[in-house]
Design goal:
The protein is mainly β and 393 residues long. 14% of the residues lie in helices and 44% in strands. It has 4 helices and 18 strands. It is globular, with a radius of gyration of 20 Å. Pfam families: SUFBD_core.
Length: 393
């Protein structure tokens, strides 16, 4: 069942559950997935999948006028077992996890010069994470990266976005049978950056995929994490946290496509918003197709509005085409600071600013712990504290 609290001013919290014969997800897609940008019309903002996005702030990524003119400094550190290759678009490993689902992603696929393929060999269990640093150095940039884990391989990947650029990219995660992957994508851009990216995960039989998306920086960030399965027993956990500040637009649009029997998914995203014209959008779509008996899925989005002037749109949707499932549900809630929590802390001698910081830390704590890397967890907590300090300066 859908769960919702009474939203504050500036919040739009809605959701739906569709049974066989109805379609909630397909209505948001103006065209079928395709690698050809010509298959997608130029969006005008009236389309369902674009109605929340301020198109003028995409800097031409949506209409073909954004020609590659900049650069991103890429640094990859990986254990010796890992292979890192630069390949052309003719490489057969590109696109296996899924095709672009909108014009921006298709433009990225049509515009990159070289793709990067990172491969973890069969049965390799990495002691250290693969770290990818992408630092924007201005201009418009496009990219394509494939991370492939062979059968029974285990790895952690950290993708860290910093600097300034207008960027569109596609990222693929291909998991062989029995593989285990945790990927952390951090969007810590400068305030003027624009970042659109589609993340496609293809989860093999009995494989486990965990994604943690962290979004702080950028003028506009729009991410499309997507998951599909190739065999029974696959598991996907999608976590996310975002802190939307004054004037920022942060949009996360997820799709978990259960088209294979006996697979599981769990989605949990949390966001905090503060400042005038801060706007966060969360779209959570889960499809359970008619052949996906035994599916177990749940999705959750919670948002904490810290100041007046912030707006959040939260739309969970669950489409079910078979009744032979273990469980399915979704929840969405948006609310303000609870005065009782602040009063309780302040009554024990804690200052108002410190109490506010503790409440927000507690709100995000569960998701931060999912990262599993102490150095990165400490950095993100420090970032949250810095955002709060800036709001009261």
């Amino acid at each position: 069942m859908a769960e919702a609290q009474n939203p504050p001013a500036g919040a739009n919290t809605s959701g739906s559950i569709a049974v066989a014969g109805e379609s909630t997800v397909a209505t948001r897609m103006s065209a079928a997935p395709s690698f050809d940008v010509a298959d997608f019309p130029v969006p005008h903002g009236r389309e369902e999948e674009w109605r929340f996005t301020p198109l003028d702030r995409l800097k031409g990524l949506h209409d073909g006028s954004a020609e590659a003119s900049g650069s991103v400094k890429a640094e990859i550190s990986a254990p010796d077992e890992v292979t890192v290759e630069s390949v052309g678009r003719e490489d057969a490993r590109l696109g296996r996890a899924g095709a672009p689902i909108d014009r921006v992603a298709a433009q990225a696929y049509s515009s990159f010069e070289r793709a990067t393929v990172v491969t973890v060999p069969k049965e390799a269990v990495l002691d250290e994470p693969i770290r990818v640093g992408l630092h924007g150095q201005g201009g418009v940039t496009y990219g394509h990266t494939v991370f492939e884990l062979k059968q029974f391989a285990e790895a952690v990947i950290v993708i860290d976005h910093t600097g300034d650029t207008v960027r569109s990219a596609n990222v693929e995660f291909v998991l062989g049978d029995g593989a285990k992957l945790t990927v952390v994508s951090v969007q810590d851009w400068d305030d003027t950056a624009v970042h659109c990216s589609q993340h496609n995960a293809l989860v093999g039989r009995d494989a486990t995929f965990k994604s943690v998306v962290v979004t702080f920086g950028g003028d506009l960030v729009r991410l499309n994490p997507r998951v599909s399965y190739t065999g029974p027993g696959g598991e996907a956990e999608l976590y996310g946290l975002f802190f939307t500040d004054n004037g920022q637009h942060q949009e996360h649009r997820l799709l978990v496509d259960h088209d294979t029997p006996n697979c599981r998914s769990n989605v949990a995203y949390k966001g905090a918003l503060q400042g005038a014209d801060a706007h966060a959008v969360w779209i959570g779509d889960v499809i359970i197709r008619k052949d996906a008996a035994g599916t177990d899925t749940y999705e959750l989005n919670r948002n904490l509005v810290l100041t007046d002037g912030a707006r959040v749109d939260s739309v969970p949707n669950l489409e079910i085409e078979t009744g032979e499932i273990v469980g399915a549900g979704h929840a969405s809630a948006t609310g303000r600071f609870e005065d009782e929590q602040l009063f309780y802390l302040m009554s024990r001698g804690i200052s108002a600013d410190e109490a506010r910081r503790l409440v927000v830390r507690g709100f995000f704590a569960e998701l931060v712990q999912q990262i599993g890397l102490p150095d990165l967890q400490e950095r993100l907590i420090a970032k949250i504290d810095a955002e709060l300090e800036a709001s009261v300066a």
